[in-house]
Amino acid sequence: MTPILATVNYSEPWWIQIIKALVIFAVGLQLIPLVLLAERKMLGRFQGRYGPNRVGPFGVMQPLADIIKLATKESFRPRTSVGFIFMAAPAISIITAVATLAIVPFGNTVDIFGTKVGLYGVDPSIGILYAFAFGGIAFYGLMLGGWASGSKYSFLGAMRSAAQLISYEISQGLALVGVVMLAGSLSLTEIVDAQATQGWFIVPQIVGFVVFLVAGFAETNRAPFDLPEADAELVGGYITEYGGGGFTSFFFAEYLNVIVVSAITVTVYLGGWLLPFGWHTPGLAMPFIVIGKTCLLIFLFIWVRATLPRLRYDQLMSLGWKILLPIATINTLATAVMVVT
Amino acid sequence: MTPLIFFIASIGAIAGAVGVIALRNPFYGVLSLVGHLLCLAALFLLLHAEFLAAAQVIVYAGGVMVLYVFVVAYVGGSGESLGASHGWLRILTPVFVGVLLLELMVATLGSGLKAIGTEGADIQASFGSPAEIGELLLTRFLFPFEVASLLLLVAAIGAVGLARRRSGFTVGDAPLDAAARSVSPPKGSGTMAEAAGDRPVFGGKVGDQ
Amino acid sequence: MIAAIKAPLIDWSALAPFTSLTVGAVVVLIAGLVGSARLRSWLVPGLALVTLAVTAVELLSRWNHPKVIVSEALRVDNLTVTLGLLCVGAAAFAVILSLRSDTEEGVGRGEYHSLLLFTTIGMLILIAANDLVTIFVGLELLSIPLYVLCATELRREHSLEAGLKYLIVGSVGSATLLYGLALIYGATGSTSLPKIGVAISDTGALTDPLLLAGMALAIAGLSFKASAAPFHQWTPDVYEGAPTPVTTFMATATKAAALGILLRILVGPLLPAVDDWAPVIAVIATLSIVVGNFGALGQDSLKRMLAWSSVAQVGYLLAGLVVATSLGIGALVFYLVVYAVMTLAAFAVVIENERTSDDGERLSGFAGLGRRRPWLAGAMTVSMLSLAGLPPTGGFIGKLAIINADASGGWMWLAIVLVLGSLVSLGYYLRVIATMWMTEGSAEKTPVVKQAREIVAVALLAAAVTIAAGVLPSWPLERAQDVGQTVISSR
Prior knowledge:
heterotrimer, A: mainly alpha, two-stranded antiparallel ribbon, 11 helices, 2 strands, 2% strand, C: mainly alpha, two-stranded antiparallel sheet, 75% helix
C-alpha cells in the first residue's frame, strides 16, 4: 500500500500521520471554546459590561455549559425542510473547516525521538490552493443548509453568504498571488522558509495583506461582513432553522474558519513560526509561536467586530468588486514587475 | 488503497453523471453534477495531477457550479420538474447513446493502450506540479494559453453585451419582460408593496411556493 | 527562486496577421466607447476595415513562405493564406453589409465589430492550427463570438432563439470534437499534428480502434460547424434567425474554417488512414447533398432556402475532400472560394431587399424585383445560376473540377450523386430567378428606405467575380492547385 502522496516527497510512517492528525484536530477544536469565551469576554469589555461571569470562576466554564446545552437539545427539523440535505449541510461545513486546518504548518520538520516529523498535517505541492479548494466546497455547506431549511430567512441568508463568499474569494486569491510569486512556491512551509531569508512578507506585501485580511473577514462571515446572519433582517441567516447538533456544527465551523484564516495569514504574511529580528526559533517552540501569533490575529477579529458597524449589502458588493479586486490586481501586477526586474 | 479509491471515485463520477440526466428536479441535478466533478477531482489526484484536481474543485465546484446553484435555487422551484422528451426522440436517443457507448467501449478496450491493468508509467516527483504546468503553459502551449485569455475577454464582452440594460426598454417588451416577470416574488413574502395593500405586487404573477 | 525557463522563439513577422487582428479588435472595442453616436457610426466600421485590410496584406506577404511558428502551434502556409484571406474578406464584407443595420440597439457597435474581428481571429487560428490544443482553442474562439453575434438583435425573438440554439448545438459539436481529439491523443501520444502523423505511419497506430473512434468523433464535431448532414438540423433556424450580415459571414467564413481544419487533419497526419475516413466523408457528402437539396425545395423564406442550399454545397465540397489528392484539394479550395463569393452576392441582395420591402426575406418579396431594380436582380440571377452550377459561372467550373477529381480518384458514384443533386437544386434556384423576372410585384411598393449603394455594389462585385471565375478559371485554378500541392507535400 502506497499512500497517494508518497510519490510527491512526502513519506512519513502511517502511525505518525495518524498521531499528527489527532493532535492537530484536538488542538484545533480546543481553541474553539477558548475563542468563544475570549470573544464574549472582550465584547463585554469593549461595550462596558461584564460578559459571562456566572459559570465557574470569571465565567470560564461558560463555553462548556453552552456545549452541554446544545448537545443535549432535541434535534428537530422543520416540516418544509428537505431531510437528507438538511442533515448533510452542517457536516459539510465542519468537515471542510477541519480539512483546511490540515495544511496550516505549525512548524518545520523536527526530530522527535529520532523520527523526522513535519509539524503540519499535510504539505501538498499545491499548498494554498488546497485551502481554496475546500473553501469552494464549504460554500455548499451554507448553501444547502439554507436551501434545505425550507424557510425564506434561511434561503436569503444562504444566498447572501454564497454571493459574499464567491465575491471575496477572488480578491483573496489574487492577493495571495503576490506572496506566491515572491516565495516561488505554493507550499506553505516553503513560503515560511522564504520569509526566513526575505523577511516577513507583510513588509513588501502590505497591500496584499490588507486585502487578504479584509477578504478573510468576509469569507468567514464576520463583522462587519456578517450580513448572512444579520439578526435584524434575517433572524439567523442560514442557521435559522437549525438547533442542537446542526447549530453546533455550523457554529463550530464558523469559529474554526476564523482560526484557520488567522493561522494562514500568520503563515503567509507574518512569518509563521519565525521570530522577529532574526532570533533563532527552537524546534519544539514553533507551534507555540504560530498559535501565539494566531491568537493576536483572532483578537484583531474580535476588536473589529466590536468596533465597526455592519455594511449594507450593496456596499459589501461594491467594496468587493470595485475596490478590493482592482487593488489586488494592481498589487499582483506590481509584484510581478518587482520580481522580474 | 489506490484501486479502492479509484473504484469509489469512478462509480461516484458515473453515478453523478447519470444523476444529472436522470433526476427531474433541477436542483438535485446540479448537486449531482457537483458530486460528479468532485469525483473527477479525486480521479485526477490518483493520476498525480494535484494541481489539476485543485483547479477542478476551485473552478468548477467552487465557481461555475455556484452560479448554477444560484440560478436554479432562485428560479427553479423544487416542485418544478423539467419536461420529458417526447415522440421519436424518446426512442432514438437511447439507441444513439447505446451505439456511441458501444463504440467507445470497443475503442477503449481494443486499443493499443498498453498501460491498462498495469501500475502505469513511472513519473518524477515534479510531475503535475504547478511549476511544471506553468512551464508548459509558457513554452510549449504558449500560443493556446494566450488565445485562451482572448477567449475569456470575448466571453466577457459577449455576456456584458447581451445582459446590458438598454435605454428605451419598456414594460411589455417581450421576451425580456417575460423573463423578468417569472422571477417576481411570490405572494405572502412580506414585501413593502404587499404591506401597502392596494398596489399590485411587482410583476403581477402570483406563484405559490 | 525563479527557474530558468527558455521562452519559445516567436517569429513576429509570421505571427503578424494574428497580432494585428487582435490589436485591431481591441482598438475597435475601445473606439465603440466614443461618445458621439455619429462619430462612432463611421469610426468603428472604418477601423475594423483598416484592421482587416492590414491583416490581408500581411497574409498575402506570407504566400509561398510556409513556416511553423510559436512552439509548433501554428503553420502559416499557402492553405492558411488562401482560406485566411477568404475569412478576412468575408469579415470585411460583413462589416460593409452591416453598415446600416442597427447594431447600436443590440450589443453596441464597438462590441459587434470587435466580436466579428475576434471570430475572424478564431478562424485564422483554426485554419493555421498545427496542434490539437490549438485546434480546440481556435474553434472556441471562432464559436463563442458567433453565438453572441447571432443573438445581437435582442428585440427579435428569432434572433435570441438562433443564438441559444446555436450555442447549445455548437457546444455539443465542440464537446464531440474535444472527445475525438482526446482519443486521437490517447492513441498516438502527441498533440502535435506532425508527430501524430509520424506515430500513425511508424508505430502502426493505424489499426487502433481508439484512433478510429477519435477520428469519427472529430469528423462529427467539425461537421457540426460546417453544418454537413446529418449534423445540420440547426442550420435553417439559426441562419434565418441571425441578423443577415452575420448569416452571410457564417455561411461563408465559418464553413471555410471548418473545412480548412478538416482538410488539415485528414489530409495531414491522418492521410495514411485514408481508406478509413474517405468512405465516411463520402457518406456525409452524399447525405448532405440529398438532404440539403430536398430540404431547400419547399422553402418560402430565402434565408432558409440558402441555409439548406449551403448544406448541399458543403456536400459538394466534401466530395472534393474524399479524393485526398492535390487535384481534389485544389478543386475543394477553388470551389470554396467561389462558393463564398456567390453566397455573398445572394445574401447581399437579400439584405438589400429586406431593408427596402416588408417581406423582403420571403420569396414573394422578390416578385417583380427584375423590373424594380434590375441590377440587384441581375446579381441575384448570377448567384443563383452559379450556385446551381450552370455555365458560364465559377460555380460551374468548381463543380466540374470536383467531378473531375472524383472521377479520376475512383469515386465515380459520388460524382454521379453530385450531378443528380445539382439537377434537383435547379428546382429551387430557378424558382427564385423566375419569381424575380417573370412575376409582377403584388403591389407597386414605394421604397421607404433609401437604397444602400454599398450593398448593391457588394452584390454586383461578387456577381462579377463569380462570372470572372467562370470565364477565366485558369489562374485561380492553378493557385488552388498550388495550395493542394503544398498541403500534400508538407505532411
